[in-house]
Amino acid sequence: FTSEELVKDTFKTINAIDGKVEAFLTLNEEEALQQAKAADEKGYSEIVSLQGLPIGIKDNIVTKDLTTTAASRMLEGFNPIYDATVMEKLKAEGAVNIGKLNMDEFAMGGSTETSYYKKTKNPWDLTKVPGGSSGGSAAAVASGELLASLGSDTGGSIRQPASFTGVVGMKPTYGRVSRYGLIAFASSLDQIGPFTRNVKDNALVLEAISGYDTHDSTSVNKPVPAYHQGLTGDIKGMKIGLPKEYFGEGVDEEVQKAVLKAAEQYRQMGAIVEEVSLPHSKFGIPAYYIIASSEASSNLQRFDGIRYGHRTENAETLEELFVNSRSEGFGMEVKRRIMLGTFSLSSGYYDAYFKKAGQVRTLIKQDFAKVFADYDLILAPVTTSTAFGLGEKNDDPISMYMSDLLTVPVNLAGLPGISVPAGFSSEGLPIGIQLIGNYFQEQTIYQAAYAFE
Length: 453
Ligand code: GLN
Prior knowledge:
Elements: H1 3-21, E1 24-27, H2 29-42, E2 54-58, H3 85-92, E3 96-101, H4 135-142, E4 148-152, H5 159-165, E5 168-171, E6 192-196, H6 199-209, E7 239-243, H7 253-268, E8 272-276, H8 284-299, H9 318-329, H10 332-345, H11 351-372, E9 377-381, H12 397-402, H13 408-413, E10 417-424, E11 430-437, H14 442-452
Parallel strand pairs: 2-3, 2-4, 7-8, 7-9
Antiparallel strand pairs: 1-3, 4-6, 5-6, 5-10, 9-11, 10-11
Helix pairs in contact: 1-2, 8-10, 8-11
Bound molecules: glutamine.
Domain Amidase: 5-445
Active site: 58, 133, 157
Pfam family, one: Amidase
């Protein structure tokens, strides 16, 4: 069939089910159909890898002339004047942008409930959250609306929703994918990555969006392997570490069991699976929330009511213009992070908080380096539980933060990590396993993920 048929069909599906799932914030119907027709005219090509493929984009990735809000009132109706680098790359590969996907406001959260616009539901159980912050991107793939989407992962926001909704979600090595045009949350942690239903598609999309970009000084100039090509399913002799600290208290038994069962499957496929230790990961949550909030407090200064987005009607002085625009434009969680970050960066507290968090970050990095001296991959749970109920953790930010325990160490170290579906809980909710690789070893991760699925 043609791309036009595929894209029309995609919008039909979205019209039929998005009223329930609420994954989308903005649809790009007119332009998508034009892109599809253009793709059909060019015909099949072996050079252009995503020709005519419908794909959805998290709403913190800027899209030229298409409303981009980061799910904040602050950016209501904001139409960017340029495309993020990942968008340019997707377009060059022939992909068709179907629309923008819901998320936690400025990617701060783990349930997609901090969005100013709507609450996305978990397609497996509409009373549960899809996870977050890339909840819309995950739900759209899990519900069958899309084959692929992009999300961003600062402390788990691709892997956790992928795990909660039973899809494949990859957070690449820091620097693998350009952040140019990604609305910054915590610049030293943020990374864009793909959601798909299977490993091969994921590899294909990552291949398309990866690579060096002069617009992002933290992007790394290293050739991009043809990730989807080396997938044989042969993992004989691969050395996999099981970090004992990731199977402790606070991690649901059913989740632990699913990961241990996966470990057994890997052994049967010929891998060597042994216990390893990541002793400083338990300090990941406090270190992450100090570093991420500090960087956010700096990054979000640009939303001043003058340059972008929401401007108050209610100001006599310049000071009031700043204060009231920000008070009206930002939601509770964003304000909480700005206050936490401003506090930990302030001169009297810098040494005790921000500097200390940086030291913990180094220790976490060193733990991983020690393990990767002897092992190819780390296998661990992604989340401490399966998807929780809508509203369940809303009034309890600490318990929401604690649920990021098993994902934030990867971001603090800058390593790549994936979530791959590994069955269901007794309640019928998806469980994911996390595979963590050494720097730029996405290929090894995909190989092991492919062998497992
Ligand atoms: N849940 C984490 C947070 O709220 C991670 C968010 C993310 O990765 N964008 O900061």
